[in-house]
Design goal:
This protein is an alpha+beta fold and 178 residues long. It has a four-stranded antiparallel beta sheet, with helices on one face. It contains five helices and four strands. 33% of the residues lie in helices and 18% in strands. It starts with a helix and ends with a strand. It is globular and about 45 Å long.
């Protein structure tokens, strides 16, 4: 990757922090998948969530088939962190940013795979519920957790910020590339 070109590109966007990471160092944890299954209302209802994304072994194999990834965050400010609707609306800007970074890498000739925030909410209802293929596979970004990725473990290892305090939210994405 031409780091200089990438840094010129990325500096034009409201990315808080980013790191280029080796995918071999990404830890895939079964406990994350268990939390998805037990606590997330989206489990089993979207192409971006388990079990539709594949087994944990398949997800790990997919991640590790890409030698590197760009792990990055963006900041959103909300009036009240307890207002889930407002918080989730702020995610849309991060998803658009994630798509732009992915497009940059694709246009530079890389094959990419994007893991991002929460689960996809492009279609209501998701075609998964209807037993049909994803309507927007090029726009759908499975969430990091769906693949067993522990985002805060990457944050700690890479010495990045995880919490800025106040009414701010840090959203994270990982774009794998080869």
């Amino acid at each position: 990757m031409d780091i200089k070109k990438f840094e010129e590109f990325i500096s034009a966007f409201p990315i808080y922090e980013y790191r280029i990471i080796d995918t071999k160092k990404i830890s895939i944890e079964e406990r994350v998948r268990i939390i998805c299954q037990q606590e997330c209302e989206r489990y089993g209802s979207t192409w971006a969530c388990p079990p539709a994304v594949g087994s944990l072994d398949q997800c790990e194999e997919r991640i590790k088939s890409y030698p590197q990834g760009i792990f990055f965050s963006s900041v959103a400010e909300v009036s009240d962190l307890m207002n889930m609707d407002e918080m989730l609306l702020s995610r849309k800007d991060h998803e658009a940013l994630t798509t732009e970074v992915g497009d940059f890498l694709k246009n530079a000739g890389y094959e990419i795979y994007i893991l991002s925030t929460e689960s996809c909410d492009l279609c209501d209802p998701c075609a998964y519920i209807e037993g049909k293929p994803c309507r927007h596979p090029d726009k759908m970004h499975p969430c990091l957790e769906s693949h067993g990725v522990v985002a805060n473990a990457i944050v700690e290892e890479q010495q990045m910020e995880y919490n800025l305090g106040g009414n701010t939210i840090l959203w994270f994405s990982l774009i794998l590339f080869r």
